[in-house]
Amino acid sequence: MGIITMIIVGFIVGLIARAVMPGEQKLGFIMTVVLGIVGSIVAGYLGHALGLYSPGEGVGWFGSIIGAVIVLFIYGMIAKK
């Protein structure tokens, strides 16, 4: 059940990050889910490094969206032709 929840939350976070980020992002369903999941992981690592979260504490929706926007920005810079 944890994996299904992670995929659903990743999809929602990925959709919100794509909506917040200016410009057009041509990502499919799987890349949107991966974007949301990786964004949550990035937010967790940054939050722990900055001392915002203690070990084992969840990042939350807002932090996950911020992390996903960062990942989407980096992905856009790399994928730019």
Description:
By secondary structure, this protein is mostly helical. It has one domain (2-79). It has three helices and no strands. The chain has helices spanning 2-20, 29-50, 61-79. The longest helix has 22 residues, at 29-50. The radius of gyration is 13 Å and the shape is globular. It starts with a helix and ends with a helix.
Summarize the structure.
The chain is an all-alpha fold.
Give the end-to-end Cα distance, rounded to a whole number of Å.
39 Å
Order of helices and strands: HHH
- Count of distinct structural domains: 1
Q: DSSP strand (E) fraction?
A: under 5%
Major sheet size, sense and barrel closure: none
Could you tell me the number of beta strands? 0
DSSP helix count? Answer: 3
Structural class label? mainly alpha
Task: Report the uncertain regions.
Answer: none
What are the key terms here?
3 helices, 81 residues, 0% strand, mainly alpha, globular, single chain
Indicate the topology.
Layout: H1 2-20, H2 29-50, H3 61-79
